[in-house]
Amino acid sequence: MWALFAASYDGAKRSDFDRDLDEKHHVIVLKDVERRVMGFSTLLAIEEPGQWCAVFSGDTIVAPGFWGQTALQRAFIWYLMAQRLKRGLPVYWFLITKGYRTYLLLTRYFPTHWPRHDAPTPALEASLLDTLCRRKFGDAWDPASGLLRFTGDVCRLAEDLADVPARMAKDADVAFFLAKNPRWREGDELCCLAAADDLFVQKTTRTFL
Predict the structure, then answer these.
(1) What was the pLDDT predicted at 184?
(2) 167/164 Cα distance (integer angstroms)
(3) Are the C-beta atoms of residues 31 and 38 closer than 8 Å to each other?
(4) Structural domains in the chain (count)
(5) Could you list the residue range(s) of the whole structural domain that residue 105 is in?
(6) Is the confidence at residue 121, as pLDDT, over 80?
(7) Residue 25 belongs to domain with CATH number
């Protein structure tokens, strides 16, 4: 996992990676047929008892050769559903991203997500996102911009991954991400939230019908 992470980010430190991993509750690991790690996502459940649960995905990487696969996404959606069944509370995906590809996972798989290009973030979800960011990241959170701005040595996408193909730049979601997070190449992170309950209803409806 560390080797894949280090190859994907400039300025990555093993101590930071280990510390991030230590606080997580679960990890989804994507392997190829030879059992080599080709992707992963670290997961932390943050709960307000009796009110809501937010699943925070920390370090998330998929090797370039596996960008077209959906195994990691499907496993993550089932994980969210399991949290919903276990807790009986509204479940959200709490995501921070310094790259448009990860933001597209949010927009493509979660119909109810924020921020988005076609609608403002509702007051309830904006307040929840603010609560989560303050609790998890403290002074790095800039609520006016909706970004995390870290100081000191910042982990950034590797140069060969920090590109935006011309065809993708025209996508409405990608254009929104680039405008919302203009310093993404320098390591600023856009803070996002998605409602998982819509997925829960869709999946259970399909299962029982």
Answers:
(1) 87
(2) 8
(3) yes
(4) 1
(5) 2-208
(6) yes
(7) 3.40.630.30
